[in-house]
Amino acid sequence: MLCIPIIGPTLENAKSQIKRASCLGDLLEFRLDCIKSWDVSEIKQLLQKAALPTILTLRKKSQGGFYPGTESERLSTIQQLAKLEPDFLDLEYDIPKAFFQEIMKEHPHLKIIVSFHDFEKTPKDLEGILTTLKKTPGHFYKIVTTAHSSLDALRMLGFVKKHRNLIGLCMGEAGIPTRILGPVVGSYCVFAPLYKIGTLPTVDELLNIYHFKSLNKDTRMYALIGDPVDSSIGHLMHNAVLRDLRAVYVKFKVGPNELREFLLLAQELDIKGLSVTMPLKEMIVPYLDVMEEAACNIGSVNTVSFEHGRSLGYNTDAAGALDAIEAKGQIKGKKVIVLGAGGAARAIVYEACKRGAKTVILNRTKTKALKLAERFGSRGGGLENLAEESKGGYDVLINTTPEDLSLDPEWILPNTLVMDIRTHPKNSSFLQKALEKGCTPIYGHEMFINQAISQLEIWFKNQIDRNKIKP
Ligand code: ATR
What we know:
Layout lengths: L1 E5 L4 H14 L2 E5 L8 H10 L4 E4 L13 H12 L5 E5 L4 H10 L4 E7 L8 H8 L6 E7 L3 H12 L4 E6 L4 H5 L1 H4 L4 E2 L11 H6 L11 E7 L7 H9 L4 E7 L5 H10 L2 E6 L13 E2 L1 H6 L4 E5 L2 E5 L2 H10 L8 E5 L3 H12 L3 E6 L2 H11 L2 E4 L3 H7 L3 E4 L17 E4 L8 H8 L3 E3 L1 H17 L11
Parallel strand pairs: 1-2, 1-8, 2-3, 3-4, 4-5, 5-6, 6-7, 9-10, 9-11, 12-14, 15-16, 15-18, 16-17, 18-19, 19-20
Antiparallel strand pairs: 11-13, 13-14
Helix pairs in contact: 6-11, 13-14, 13-18
This protein binds 2'-monophosphoadenosine-5'-diphosphate.
The site of 2'-monophosphoadenosine-5'-diphosphate has 15 residues, from helix 14.
């Protein structure tokens, strides 16, 4: 269920929030400690405007709220609010038990959410916290912690999956996946703001990007891992396709030191597949059970599929790049110059050689180019060698470096195919120069789309119709 907090700060603001939220969510949480100057009769009127079930919350400061008065004033106000008969009342776990018992006795239809917040960390012993909370009578238990890493978020998701009548999520940017995947792991509800607050996904984002209303325990989970991942747009394209395949795709920031534990937790959580980006493409190899031929030869993986308890590694970058080039012209027997000698260059050279091209690798650090060239039976040299190579002619020129290389325009030959594998900026000065020479440009996003579709084909086999996917 999607719960939308109503936060004011004025009663007028709250009214318009209720109106909008009532069309989008499943539940409304009235955060009365965020709304300024009201009396109980005004809240009664607000409740009448709500077309959805409601939670009333009057959070105290030690649990992250803004209620300004004393604790006894707060408890007495809560008693009055309970008489308004909302559907749920959120009460902090450390309120005296007798208070809970009294409220439950007087309002048998009211459902109590016993809540716990940790603003510093996600404690290791989440089970222990739930055991403590359960000593207090209630209908639902809510545990909200602060995630400092994707491992914290995964632990929270795994924990929630083991329980019923639990609301579990993490605050902080690293906790975002817990706010998307709640319905998949069975969290009773997920909270999302109507309007952007920091990096939290909004109601609109959950509904439109992650098709939140269709997520449930049968939804298959997929994820992008790497660092950085925040600027990646893969989740937009993947989720648009996954909507019809009962699956969802989220991003986890994962650094090299977290990779091992992440993979264990991801498998425990039954994540079905991963997209892998920098800096993990090579580091992930030793952790995988099986490597498909291209990934094995390239030594890097951008796609993982978890099947029957095994992890399978694939590389769809290489074919993605070459398919983008060959959409503009065949490369068999053609001379292809690759600028750069990193992981992307290795993938492209491997695939280009496999498809019968004659490759030349030119790199800032010449020794790296020579080493790579030796491995694939190509020629290698420094970037400056492009002057010499251009005199001899070539058919395809590919920039695989992260730089917008400023090359002598003389080195870019007219009417060739020129590719820049970077997606930003689309029109790099490298490609601009090529366009001015009458070359055919191949943009990074063309490779990106191809590799992404190939990932989907690995995960969903023949359920994917490549021709129907609109980038
Ligand atoms: P990836 O695995 O994504 O291809 P990488 O392994 O970091 O990335 O490789 C980046 C490539 O771009 C390297 O070949 C690098 O050259 P060096 O081997 O000399 O480091 C090249 N590169 C990075 N910055 C560059 C720059 N400013 N000018 C030229 N080449 C650059």
